[in-house]
Amino acid sequence: MSATTDEPLYLCLDQGGHSSRALVFDRLGRQIAAARQPLTASRTDDERVEYDACGLVNSLQRCLQDALQQLGRRASSWPGRRWPPSVPISPAGTGPTGRR
Q: How many distinct helices (H) and strands (E) make up the chain?
């Protein structure tokens, strides 16, 4: 049975220590799209690892865009197809209102 464009799709976003991922599954749990973006960590000392907040958000945005491209026509029926918005997203505390 082939998938139709009106079947529900399920998006999973995973933010890990080495990469961000977007996975899309159909109603039967079959993976139909996958995207991955590597992350770069900075070590401040022997015990602490930090990630750039904007870099994390951007990596998730790129993963979502890649997954949507893989879906092709099926993505046109997904309500979130217009995400990411054209306005850049700034994680809390990193935009103009978060500066002191």
A: 1, 5
Cα four-point dihedral sign 11, 12, 15, 20? negative
Beta-carbon count within 10 A of 63 CB = 23
Distance CA 63, CA 13 (A): 8
Q: Report whether 25 contacts 10 (CB < 8 A).
A: yes
Query: 56-83, pLDDT tens digit by residue?
Result: 888 998 999 899 899 888 877 666 555 5
* Amino acid at residue number 43: R
Closest CA to 39 of 54, 22, 26, 56: 56
3-state secondary structure of 34: strand
Q: What is the pTM (predicted TM-score) of this model?
A: 0.69
